[in-house]
Write a structure and sequence with these properties.
The structure holds 2 protein chains of 2 kinds. Chain A is of the alpha+beta class. Chain A contains 4 helices and 8 strands, in the order βαβββββββααα. In chain A, strand 6 and strand 7 form a beta hairpin. Helices cover about 35% and strands about 30% of the residues of chain B. Classes of the chains: A alpha+beta, B alpha+beta.
């Protein structure tokens, strides 16, 4: 076989570069989430649709960025802002937040779900602001299941 | 003739609706006709022969010319190479990764 489906697990800078290349065609990129830092709203194994993003970035938005420390692609929520930097936190990570520059943002998550098709249709809605507020209070990991049930 | 039928006299070119990228020596191709770049499920990769054929889909050379040049380059039995390349082109047409230009 001269051609086959690729089994390469894209990650880090290579994944970020491929997502940017997709965005140059003005279409969203769909990837699979592997970590649990945004659970239960976005669970490991869920698909997310990432669209090109430009400022203004809004409180509660979920963004994909390349961590300057770990060089991994991370998907977390905006819980604050300081000049041209954003305060980013995982819904399920009560004790850690990151401050990143706008330039590290790859895109905005506009959809998520258990299949790529659902990820194209179902996106963050009314819940993003209350979840971000709970995240700032470091209790979003305790109340996330409520939102997940309400969003069903 | 079905547009996905391979014609060795035809000329084919890479579709504008794909993204390709070389990663650690591997050519990755991502079609996005569905309006989304599904990096998880829709990535394809070519082996060395496939990559050689892909690079020659320039919209000028006929498939027959490509088969002949690849056969010479890889010094492989002509019929085997032809079968493999026709199969490749068939798949590329079905996935809309290439287009027929004439």
């Amino acid at each position: 076989m001269l051609i086959k489906k690729s089994t390469r697990h894209m990650r880090g800078p290579a994944l970020a570069a491929l997502i940017r290349q997709v965005h140059q065609k003005s279409i969203p990129a769909v990837i699979r989430v592997r970590g649990g830092s945004m659970a239960p709203i976005i669970r490991p194994g869920d698909f997310v649709a990432i669209t090109p993003a430009t400022p203004p970035y809004r409180f509660g938005d979920i963004v994909a960025f390349l961590s300057p420390e770990t060089r991994k692609l991370v998907i977390h929520r905006i819980i604050g802002r300081s000049r041209n930097r954003l305060i980013i936190k995982g819904d399920n990570v009560p004790d850690r937040q990151d401050v990143i520059h706008f330039s590290h943002i790859i895109g905005t998550v506009t959809g998520y779900g258990t299949t790529p098709a659902i990820a194209r249709k179902t996106g963050p809605g009314w819940e993003k602001i209350p979840v971000a507020m709970f995240s700032r209070l470091k209790i979003s990991h305790r109340v996330g299941f409520l939102f997940k049930n309400l969003l069903k | 003739m079905n547009r996905n039928t391979v014609d060795t006299q035809a000329v084919y070119a890479v579709s504008p609706d794909i993204i390709s990228r070389e990663i650690e020596g591997e050519l990755i191709i991502l079609p996005f006709q569905s309006g989304v770049g599904n990096i998880e499920d829709d990535m394809y990769t070519l082996n060395a022969t496939g990559k050689t054929v892909w690079e020659r889909l320039n919209g000028r050379d006929s498939l027959e010319e490509i088969i002949a040049s690849v056969s010479r380059e890889f010094d492989a039995p002509g019929q085997q190479i032809k079968n493999d390349i026709v199969s490749l082109i068939q798949t590329l047409l079905e996935k809309q990764m290439i287009i027929r230009t004439c």
